[in-house]
Batch of 2 targets.
Target 1
Amino acid sequence: MTPLLAAVDLSKSYGARLALDGAALSVRAGEFVAVLGPSGAGKSTLFRCLTRLTEPDRGEVFIAGAPLHALRGRKLAQARRNIGVVFQQFNLIRRLSAIDNVLAGRLAGAPLWRVMARSFAAADEAIAIDALRQVDLGEHIDQRADTLSGGQQQRVAIARAIAQQSRIILADEPVASLDPDTAIAILTLLHGLTRSSNVAVVCSLHQPQLAERFADRILSMEAGRLS
Ligand SMILES: Nc1ncnc2c1ncn2[C@@H]1O[C@H](COP(=O)(O)OP(=O)(O)OP(=O)(O)O)[C@@H](O)[C@H]1O
Ligand SMILES: [Mg+2]
């Protein structure tokens, strides 16, 4: 069966430092893959190269067999919509509310004024609200992102990826800012998507016990090498 997400020989250097060293990855639909590794090992670089938000020096990425590395411009943007990303630094738009951040992710590719002008379908809004409720932010839907606590911001970032309804979710330490109970609730939610919607999840974590509990497969990252 064609993997939903595959990477071959992905490499990225920053000056003399090889941050990603020939990483290969193959993830099936419905699979939850955890990536463990110390700080600086290259986990975020891997995630950024998988989406080509950082251009790798070398290597190939395939989504359901289609080469992402061969795409440019609008086609690349379209293909990227198959991948929901939870960024380690959240990457929220600070001055927008929680729901507008989620909508901006869902309507990716559309100009931001559509969100500001409330120019979107009621169905999109309903999906965004539902995603925020799933991460237990139903009380904070209209609150500005920069007034939310760190853990709440992290959950907005997760809701944004969920509301995108993509086939693949890359989550870069999505529970790093959460208390233990909330962390388990969020990983249960992401794991549930693999089972209910056949989403492929790749999730970097720092806690091996969480990886053991939720992942179908655990990969380790060490000095840029994935194994
Ligand atoms: N834009 C950049 N410029 C220079 N060096 C970078 C850049 N991005 C990452 N690096 C370096 O590449 C290496 C891998 O960084 P990366 O952020 O991928 O690690 P990580 O495994 O995600 O770490 P953490 O667990 O702390 O998030 C590090 O040594 C980092 O300093
Ligand atoms: Mg990182």
Note: The beta strands are 5-14, 17-27, 32-36, 58-63, 66-67, 83-86, 168-172, 200-205, 217-222, 225-226.
Target 2
Amino acid sequence: MQLSDRYFARGREFLGTEVPILCGGMTWISNAQLVAAMANAGGFGCLAGGNSPAAILEAEIQRTRELTDRPFAVNLVTIAPAFPEQLEVVCRQRPQYVVFAGSFPNAREVEQVKALGSKVICFASTISIAQRMVRYGADALVLEGMEAGGHVGHVSLTVLLQQVLFEMSEVPIFVAGGIATGKMCAHLLLMGAAGVQLGTRFAVAKESCAHPRFKEKFCKANARDAVSTPQFDSRLPVVAVRALRNAGLEDFSRLQLELIAQLDAGTIHREAAQLEVEKFWMGALRRAVQEGDIERGSLMAGQSVGLVDREEAVADILADLRQGIEAELQAVRSRLLPEA
Ligand SMILES: Cc1cc2nc3c(=O)[nH]c(=O)nc-3n(C[C@H](O)[C@H](O)[C@H](O)COP(=O)(O)O)c2cc1C
């Protein structure tokens, strides 16, 4: 028996996997191929609903089931235009696990999915969201710090660990945001996490369908290159997304400044200006992931990108994390009990 077995127990039992390590759902990236690779290597994958039409999501669920007989989740972005139809797909297909992402689900949606017999996992980026999701009946939480890639909250993982992980024990908590090493996973498990969720490191996996230019950019980037989208004026709210700095991000800043000047001059209505802001990134992640448009596409990445420097097979990433976790737990034991 390894030391890690003790710390894996709660997450393993909840997820039904060998290791309680999740590859987070990533729009356009987490398809059947990546999810099945994760499941077959002993981890847990989340199929991304993202902006997919419902029929494509349904086909991907079926394809994942052909590629693996192990558990996986369907990840739904509650603010996606196709969300209502995707929820209908979930009701038909009854996946074992459903992750609600984007914003948060309402109590009725959580109940609806639980009534199918599926386990519900909800994101939490603040203490109040964590408490509300548990009240609504979430079976587990992904506690995600602002270091993460994609849509992000504004609270750092360091603070969320103290506010949520150390204080709440009702449901298993999987921790995410800025994680890329087994050493870090070991310490999060010691702090009480049931497991961890990574995105950025798996976006660069061999089995990830991301364009070679997208992966190359990730391998070369530093942690400080993954920035959260700026908002310059409360009249023009911006949904925060962490992505690599590129020409598209500079254009977006310029657009906001131009719109603010037009608002001040009274030459544009607030609604029209807001629409311009919302339109800007439409299709931008798909362009980066599928077409390799690294200049003007959206290169969603966590600050963990600074710890990723090569493309590896999913099984090798998991083996490296497992080895790192066990080695660190052993090292901690000998620091605490040098005579043992
Ligand atoms: C390219 C990209 C796309 C993402 N899309 C989604 C998504 O559709 N749904 C979701 O729940 N999280 C999404 N995320 C967040 C990941 O699931 C995960 O929680 C996050 O990447 C963890 O932080 P890390 O990137 O530092 O590992 C995305 C992340 C990235 C990098």
Note: The domain at 3-210+308-336 is CATH 3.20.20.70 (TIM Barrel).
